[in-house]
Design goal:
372 residues; binds zinc ion; alpha+beta; 23% strand; elongated; six-stranded antiparallel sheet
Length: 372
């Protein structure tokens, strides 16, 4: 009887899967199924199938500048694009240190309002003003200004620092902590009516308060005052930083690469707010630019993005420093099987142009003179 080759098919048909085939003489033979890998056109965040036209997803959120060329992706669906705009980028603008730095570059916005979270700018100098809460804002013409919020400062004795309490938080409980003889300061507000209102409120809360006169503003002759800024990255800000990193990976490595399941955990953290946030973004102790590490000088106030795919330790890592301020290291995956790949871009915040940077591996024979 003629032997018929027996073909066993895997239960699930996958691309590039090998099937076992017995040859006539009984020796196993392996052949590859001729299935072509067809690129899929799915959203890199939610994997939904993309229509022919999708809104442009900006690699750097537009709130952090509009650059030439405009680096955008066309592999993010409109649902994800809209979600990121309102749920990640808007909070990042208002509640992060990077969001505050953007105001120095003429980008419109306000940071440090009454109900602010994440970032708190306070006056950093002057004996009587130090610690008072402020709002920093830049108007649509790019003009920046700092306002002191209406608030009361109190201290028990001349050697104590002032404790500050915003107008709406002023209560009997606050006033009672400062016995007779304590010193109170009222600051902020824009008009004499604001001051009068605060004085009345303080008198109600604290009957021992006696009005003692006005103080000079802490602003120097040039109208400037040093601010001290306390900030802490919220989970939302970390997710937004990871989103920028993910976008940059999609820009430099492509849509298919970004759809790999190696990035599913990070994808889900960004899009679905799931999983831990502790090991997502690390603040580096050194700048990203080699020149700055070697010579200790500052080369730019622009954004820096860099990607490093390292097969030696199987990681893909993106580095980000918005306004070249806090440099973050963001691990994208830990099972990278591909080849070594590096790329970096500089987003100049003076010319608003983007350029690709030269990237080199600084090994043991690295010559700083090569930096130019
Ligand atoms: Zn999507």
């Amino acid at each position: 009887m003629r032997q018929v080759p027996r073909v066993t098919r895997p239960r699930e048909r996958r691309y590039g899967v090998q099937s076992g085939l017995s040859s006539r003489c009984g020796h196993p033979l392996t052949v590859k199924l001729l299935v072509r890998e067809v690129p899929v056109n799915n959203c890199i965040y939610c994997r939904s199938e993309l229509p022919s036209v999708v809104p442009a997803e900006h690699v750097i959120p537009q709130g952090f500048g509009t650059f030439k060329p405009d680096l955008t992706l066309n592999c993010v669906c409109s649902d994800c694009n809209g979600y990121f705009g309102s749920k990640l980028e808007w909070p990042m603008r208002n509640e992060s240190i990077e969001g505050m730095l953007r105001l120095h570059f003429g980008l419109e916005g306000t940071v440090g309002g009454v109900r602010t979270r994440g970032v708190t700018p306070v006056i950093g100098e002057g004996e009587y003003w130090k610690g008072a809460r402020t709002t920093v804002r830049t108007d649509k013409n790019g003009k920046e200004r700092t306002d002191v919020l209406p608030q009361v400062g109190a201290r028990r004795g001349p050697s104590d620092p002032f404790e500050w309490c915003l107008e709406q938080d002023l209560s009997v409980a606050f006033a009672e902590r400062f016995p007779k003889g304590s010193e109170f300061r009222i600051v902020g507000g824009e008009t004499p009516a604001d001051l009068e209102r605060l004085v009345q409120k303080l008198k109600e809360m604290c009957p021992t308060f006696v009005y003692g006169g006005e103080m000079n503003a802490p602003f120097a002759g040039d109208g400037r005052v040093m601010l001290h800024v306390e900030h802490q990255n919220s989970r939302t800000v970390v997710r937004c930083l990871c989103k920028i990193a993910f976008n940059y990976m999609a820009l430099t490595c492509g849509q298919q690469f970004s759809l790999s399941q190696s990035f599913d955990e990070l994808r889900s953290f960004i899009r679905n707010d799931s999983g831990e946030d502790e090991s997502r973004a690390f603040v580096k102790h050194k700048p990203i630019l080699a020149h700055e590490i070697v010579y200790g000088d500052r080369r730019t106030d622009g954004h820096i993005l860099a990607i490093d795919c390292r097969p030696s330790d199987r990681v893909v890592e993106v580095q980000i420093a918005l306004f070249n301020s806090f440099p973050y290291r963001i691990p994208m995956c830990t099972d990278y099987p591909g080849h070594r790949f590096m790329k970096a871009h500089h987003f100049d915040t003076q010319t608003w142009e983007v350029s690709e940077m030269r990237v080199a591996i600084a090994g043991p024979n690295f010559d700083p003179a090569s930096l130019g």
